[in-house]
Amino acid sequence: MNTIFKRNQLVKIKRLPNSEYIEYNFEDNDEADQVNIEVGMKGKINIILPNGQYHVEILDKKGNVIAYAPFNEEDLEAV
Questions:
Q1: Span 8-20, mean pLDDT?
Q2: Closest Cα partner for 24 from 68, 59, 75, 76?
Q3: CA-CA distance, 42 to 30, in Å (whole number)?
Q4: In degrees rounded to 5, what are phi and psi of residue 28?
Q5: What is the Cα 27 distance to its own chain's centre?
Q6: Where do the domains of the chain lie?
Q7: 65, 57 contact by CB (below 8 A)
Q8: Is there a contact between 11 and 3 (Cβ–Cβ < 8 Å)?
Q9: Entry pTM
């Protein structure tokens, strides 16, 4: 399988992920409700899934991981 992105590569989100598949990186669910994932946010490829999708760590402006979500290649752009 040929992939465009490699593990740990920085990417920019071009399309929002399905909200059902977002895994927030907070112990308290109240904090997760305050986080907005937006188009243009940066992320880092965590895992390349067997179905060709990418499991991405979504980063805040400080570079901290706030959530994880699966994306297709066309939903991401190299930084």
A1: 96
A2: 68
A3: 23
A4: -100, 125
A5: 18
A6: 10-78
A7: yes
A8: no
A9: 0.88
